Inverse folding.
């Protein structure tokens, strides 16, 4: 139980931190990408505004960055500046390309840096691909582009994003590596914290179990003494209603102590285990309960798949089955009790169902608590103390399985899932 609690704490902490880290890193990456794309588009727009076709003659920069000269449409804007000339520096350090087409589709000019790795042929091929898309702006490969109609010619302006893309890729991998390392550290820390949180609860639970076990053993002696003295008094004075009361309450106390000790043994898990034919064991437990059911005017519908084997303690597994059947007989509101045992993948699923009054989600969640009984189940005439289902849960968990309760179609359904023998 506490191992499951530790895992839940670790999972919750790690999942929360992982989600926070992913959101943070994604925000950083996306915002950086958006900022770079915005800056590139602004510089590309500035380049296009500064572009004039009559300047596309051989010059010192190969036509990469035409000198400022207003065109007929509007006043050109300067690159966005941060007050220290950063915008202009970025503009001067960026690599621009341009291809101008006449109205008839002839190439008028091809511009690019003199030391560019892009040949005129590759630029013309990229520009043709851009025009075929029919879009005014976008990105092709590592090129961000802008298409402008200049009246007598069409300009395809491009900016090389190779460095930005490479930087983004490096940023992504660095964030991934650093994030993974941080997550690994956080997992170790969360495991340590989970142990610290659960340890007091585990120690308290151990103390409670020791108390139950010790109290059970200590009570066995006075119960036996009371029983012996009552028997001696009956021999001396004969039958007496007060002695009958003593015997009745002493018997109830004896049953309670037995159940407490059974719960203690089941929870401590200190039991020898062997390979058990669970199918035969279930059928064997059903037989005596069919007689009890007949006496109460009820019947048990059994559907058991043969050949299902589990690793466990036969006595505790019999106790588990008998608890579920006894619970169904005692609290069922219909004449029929259903029992089925089937193998699903690597688990043996034992299901016991009985008619029941509708139960709330809170009642279902508390059915396996010690000493818990629903109001309808409270009856001092029977020998039920609210420990049976707690014992069943402890036995199931000791055998590496689990038990759950559901209410559906007017029935209380208890399902035990145990790992089968491999």
């Amino acid at each position: 139980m506490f191992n499951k609690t530790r895992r839940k704490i670790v999972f919750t902490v790690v999942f929360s931190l992982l989600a926070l880290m992913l959101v943070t890193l994604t925000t950083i990456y996306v915002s950086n990408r958006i900022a770079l794309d915005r800056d590139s588009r602004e510089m590309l727009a500035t380049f296009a505004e500064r572009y004039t076709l009559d300047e596309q003659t051989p010059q010192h920069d190969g036509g990469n960055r035409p000198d400022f000269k207003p065109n007929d449409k509007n006043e050109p804007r300067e690159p966005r500046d941060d007050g220290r000339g950063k915008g202009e520096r970025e503009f001067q350090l960026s690599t621009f390309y341009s291809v101008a087409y006449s109205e008839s589709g002839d190439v008028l000019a091809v511009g690019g840096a003199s030391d560019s790795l892009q040949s005129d042929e590759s630029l013309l091929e990229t520009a043709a691909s851009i025009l075929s898309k029919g879009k005014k702006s976008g990105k092709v490969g590592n090129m961000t582009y802008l298409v402008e109609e200049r009246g007598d010619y069409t300009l395809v302006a491009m900016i090389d994003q190779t460095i930005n893309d490479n930087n983004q890729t490096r940023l992504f991998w660095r964030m991934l590596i650093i994030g993974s390392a941080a997550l690994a550290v956080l997992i170790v820390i969360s495991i340590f914290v989970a142990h610290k949180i659960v340890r007091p609860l585990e120690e308290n639970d151990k103390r409670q179990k020791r108390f139950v076990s010790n109290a059970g053993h200590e009570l066995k002696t006075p119960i036996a003494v009371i029983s012996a003295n009552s028997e001696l008094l009956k021999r001396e004075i004969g039958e007496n209603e007060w002695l009958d009361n003593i015997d009745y309450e002493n018997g109830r106390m004896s049953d309670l102590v037995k159940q407490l000790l059974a719960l203690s043994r089941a929870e401590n898990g200190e039991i020898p285990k062997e390979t058990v034919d669970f199918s035969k064991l279930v059928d064997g437990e059903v037989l005596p309960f069919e007689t009890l059911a007949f006496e109460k005017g009820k019947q048990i519908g059994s559907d058991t798949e043969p050949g299902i084997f589990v690793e466990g303690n036969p006595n505790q597994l019999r106790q588990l089955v008998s608890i579920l059947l006894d619970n169904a007989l005692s609290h069922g509101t219909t004449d029929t009790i259903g029992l089925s045992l089937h193998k699903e993948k690597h688990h043996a699923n034992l299901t016991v169902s009985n008619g029941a009054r509708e139960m709330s989600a809170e009642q279902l969640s508390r059915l396996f608590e010690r000493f818990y009984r629903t109001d309808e189940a409270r009856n001092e005439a029977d020998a039920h103390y609210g420990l049976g289902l707690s014992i069943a849960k402890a036995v199931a968990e000791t055998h590496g399985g689990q038990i759950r309760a559901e209410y559906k179609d007017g029935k209380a359904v208890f399902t035990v899932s145990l790992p089968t023998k491999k």
